[in-house]
Amino acid sequence: MARLTIKEISKAFGASFAVRDFSLDVDDGELVCLLGPSGSGKSTLLRMIGGFERPSAGSILIDAKDVTTLAPEKRPTGMVFQSHALWTHMDVFNNIAFGLKIRRLPKPEIRQRVESALALVGLSNYGKRMTTQLSGGQQQRVALARSLVLEPKILLLDEPFASLDQHLRERLREEVRDIQQRLGITTLFVTHGQDEALALADRIVVMRDGGTEQIAPPDLIYREPKTEFVAGFIGSMNFVRVKIRNGIIEHPDFSLAVPVADGDLMLAFRPEALSLRPSKKSGAGIVHRSIDFGTHRIVDIDLADGTRLKVMTPPDVDWTRGSLVEPVANAYFAFRENKLVHRSAAAGELQTDRMLGHV
Length: 359
Fold this sequence. Notes:
Elements: E1 4-13, E2 16-26, E3 31-35, H1 42-50, E4 57-62, E5 65-66, E6 77-80, H2 92-102, H3 107-120, H4 136-148, E7 154-158, H5 166-183, E8 186-191, H6 194-200, E9 203-208, E10 211-216, H7 218-223, H8 228-233, E11 238-245, E12 248-249, E13 263-269, E14 274-278, E15 285-292, E16 297-302, E17 308-313, E18 324-329, E19 333-336, E20 339-343
Parallel strand pairs: 3-8, 3-9, 6-7, 7-8
Antiparallel strand pairs: 1-2, 1-4, 4-5, 9-10, 11-12, 11-13, 13-19, 14-18, 15-16, 15-18, 16-17, 19-20
Helix pairs in contact: 2-3, 2-4, 3-4
């Protein structure tokens, strides 16, 4: 379909930057998720790609053609907003047909393309309904159809499922991924939901303060976070601040050899990379609570230094509140000044099918 190239894009509002020196290449047919907390610049970046914001610097190219200064209607892009932005005085058919009418296409072609778009999003018999008669999920399907009917080269999705309940959100994201793969359309998807990014993306761009923390496929983002921020933002992660002396951690609960220079260090453990065993020693961890999720338990442990750990355990073993336990680290990441400086060999073998079970 199309290739998107973003070169050193910046957007300033007064003296502050929403996006600064951002660059990205999106391949033909690829789905890339822009993931980050509120205020990280991801929606501003998407609006610049769609032409709704003018960059302060940098350029945007689609199939090697510079579209940086083009108006939204002159770009080969289609954008789906979080708010749906449907016209309530029009029925579903005319909402979807609006852009085609602006292009002055023949009525038979408009009808054929609208009906095809409705079928694509599973709303074949909804053309005559008013948008106020639709559920939130159906309205979002209409918004998607309205973008797809224009046959854009680039599809832009700005947190389209944020207002929907969890089950509907999960179902719609699966449908969107199926449609995207079936059409082979190049897509950028903005979200602050890590589960959406992990489930949808070919690659994830983790954004922070208008810049990029890491760009990688979902499995690498989870297994090999390059910064402490990424490690804490993707999935559930335990952090323990320690000191290293002669390559050994000085911490009463973890006896690990970490081959890095002496000094302060932040250790990070996934809940599934920790295990528990009963303990009788003074200063051992104390079970705060144990939550049964059916497939596994999450046990909260309070350490003597005030740190609370989350540990994933088998569901058939309950841990009594107040009991003494010793956490055992089977894999870990080590960060210094937000940068990954070491990870244990086993850290790359964490099971991705358990990623979302402990959020």
